[in-house]
Design a protein that fits this description.
This protein is an alpha/beta fold. Helix content is 38%, strand content 25%. The strands form 2 sheets. Strands 5-4-3-7-6 form a 5-stranded mixed β-sheet. Helix 1 runs antiparallel to helix 2.
Amino acid sequence: MEDKKKQITYEELKNLEDELSELKNNRRKEIAEKIKEAREQGDLSENAEYDAAKDEQRDIESRIAELEDILKHVEVIDESNLDTESVFIGCTVHFVDMESKKEFTYKISSSTGANILAGKISVESPIGSKLIGSKVGQVITVDAPNGRYSYKILDFKRDKNK
């Protein structure tokens, strides 16, 4: 398997590092205290609080391992060196479906930061990959699992909060 680095923005890196720090420094301590309290209740074989705390501990440790692995394989892009006339990772893009005339606004994110419900699409998604490098006024064609769509780039902006 190719060990390719995933590109992320400084903002995404900070979010991942903050989550990792929270899990390691706060959540681990909280769950250790829950386990201690559950143990003090006696018989662990029928202790639902103990079982729940151990499950939560497993979930936290799993997420910590996942975040550490993600952080080992990322490359932070230097947005100051990117072409300001083209869409790139970290930009918020406003575009219109050429057929339905429905307008969309999404932030282009790494796959680790993507969350469609929060308005963030992955740079690796069919539309995200086509938006990268596009310019205002350009029409892009996206082959999606449910058909082919054309979108016109209306505007994009780069986040200033690094």
